[in-house]
Amino acid sequence: MARYIIRGTLLPMTDPQTVYTDGELLIDKDTIVAAGPRGVWDDYVRTQPDWQPERILNMNKYVIMPGLVNAHTHAAMTLLRGYADDMPLMPWLETKIWPFEALMTPDDMYWGTLLALCEMIRGGTTVMADMYMNEDRVADAVLEAGTRAVLSRGITALDPVNAKKGLQENLDLFAHYHEAGEGRVKIFLGPHAPYTCTADFLQEVKREADRLGTGIHIHVAETLEEEKTILERTGKRPVAWLEELGLFGGSVLAAHCVHVNEEDRHILKAHGVGVAHNPESNMKLNSGTAPVTQMLEMGIPVGLGTDGASSNNDLDMFSEMRSASFLQKLTSSPTSLPAYEVLKMATVTGCEILGLEGCGKLAPGYHADLIALDFDQPHFVPCFSVVSHLVYCARGADVKLVMTKGRILMEKGELTGLDEEKISWEAAERAKGIAQRL
Q: N or C: which end of the chain has fewer CB within 10 A?
């Protein structure tokens, strides 16, 4: 970590109107100390006369913005990319995904996660909320890569043995990795979903989360089949049932929330539940269209995720932003989910629903988590609106610089800390080996 000045078009995400077309950002180790129009260095050294940069990055044809937040994914599912496509959710899970996952080892999880992190860094994602198995190896990969993550051991708990084992693994994960990497890794508890957990288990998870002072990451109301299952089992819809159990309150990250009616939305709002919207996975699996516009109008915080690469099939958050906006326009009106709002979902709100303080904006006192996109390309010409182009024109491949906590993870389009060729080879061999054993 060093002292940097970065110059270019600066999108701080502090408010919808502010874009510095000739901007300047000062970074001291892991923290932004000044941000604004060209000349903030001059202002800063008046109060800190000894401050001098070790590097000046002149990126005049680039747009510099906060790193993106993937608020719901299963990173090691990169090993299942393209393995099972064009199927509805439950047959896809039961006949393809779960049998494959049963053969995955902890080392498979590690290499699959490293592959995901290579893709995420290349696409400008600096934070992920991951729910999967063997999350200790996922944490190892995150610590190696230099990114941020909120990790949960996904727990299916209809069987008491699995429930006990999964919860203990999640608690052990918290004990060993929470706040690791100078705070880059945080641990939530991860009951998989209402239809895969019993009432007693969900209440036990809530007690443990409260004891530890941490959050809960859970799939909620993803499909109509889930809604039918919970109605038959409990007489209530999934959101209302979870409220009855007392799961809400504190920090809860609810992934999907596709099938939530007005009553459900009032419950989510009342308890401050954060929602992770996954439009491309929902479209591919025909799960439905989440009422994001209505949730935002009610003040429910909604972030954005890709879900796993087995149901997307990539981890490109720029593609996800475009899909999110277009899908709401298709099902609501052309004014729904405008560009700045979806950018906010992928940055500021993503950090908020994950409980990450000092992240999501480029402003003094915030962590130096940022990305820079090369706007000197035909698909950005002409540029009437930087914000519009980031959502409707940009793609992950346009990202050329990535920094987390003041550490450069990619520069000039090259990863600085991960051996991409080795990771890709290892992940491919492991995925093929698992598929051959099925």
A: C
